[in-house]
Write a structure and sequence with these properties.
By secondary structure, this protein is an alpha/beta fold. It has seven helices and six strands, in the order βααββααβαβαβα. Helices cover 39% and strands 20% of the residues. The chain is globular. The two termini are 20 Å apart.
């Protein structure tokens, strides 16, 4: 039993370079290390959450970096943070090249929540990306299917704009990606912003 099952779905498409790869990897790791997130976990009924960390790009391209991990205290949170920091994408490898299929990432993440090996009243996708959907099915239609299952979608917009496509990426995420009770989109300026997002 956990208070929330959370998929941390991280963009590793060809537009993600070392700087944004570090931003995602270290941002999520620092969030789990933060006292405010650990305190938020302790305030739950079960006092535990479950997290899986996956990387995605184009349709069919998904890598599970850290399988489902139950986090009930500081030691487990630090273990998860250390694993993500050490095994997540660095933006340097060639194996994670691809387009940006937000729709595929949402559907795949939702499927992981469907098969979560435990009990929870809250199933959440935190998707991180630096661009709009340019591969696969409509992202809005994928979002609606995911929301129809009762899952919540939050979004982390790594850029404030996508040159040549949109100068307001946050609004694109807000209008086409997020949904469910309490859903939000953020554009983090520093690693601490990831902690505030995960706490929410």
């Amino acid at each position: 039993q956990v208070d929330a099952a959370i998929v941390l779905a991280v963009d590793t498409s060809s537009s993600i370079g070392p700087e944004q790869a570090d931003q995602q990897r270290y941002g999520h790791a620092e969030a789990l290390r933060s006292r405010e997130v650990q305190a938020a976990i302790r305030r739950g009924i079960a006092r535990c959450i479950a997290v899986v960390y996956v990387e995605w790009s184009s349709v069919g391209a998904l890598r599970t970096v850290m399988p489902w991990k139950r986090i009930c205290g500081r030691d487990e949170a630090l273990e998860a943070a250390h694993f993500i920091a050490g095994h997540g994408d660095t933006g340097m490898g060639g194996a994670r090249r691809g387009s940006t299929s937000l729709s595929y990432a949402l559907e795949a993440s939702s499927l992981m929540l469907d098969h979560f090996p435990g009990r929870t009243g809250s199933r959440i996708i935190d998707i991180s990306a630096n661009g709009t959907n340019n591969d696969g099915l409509s992202v809005a239609e994928a979002r609606d299917r995911v929301l129809g299952k009762g899952h919540v979608i939050n979004a982390i917009s790594l850029s404030r704009s996508e040159p040549g496509v949109t100068d307001d990426l946050w609004t694109y995420f807000h209008d086409n990606v997020i949904g469910g009770p309490g859903a939000f989109a953020i554009t983090p300026d520093q690693p601490a912003d990831y902690a505030r997002a995960l706490k929410r």
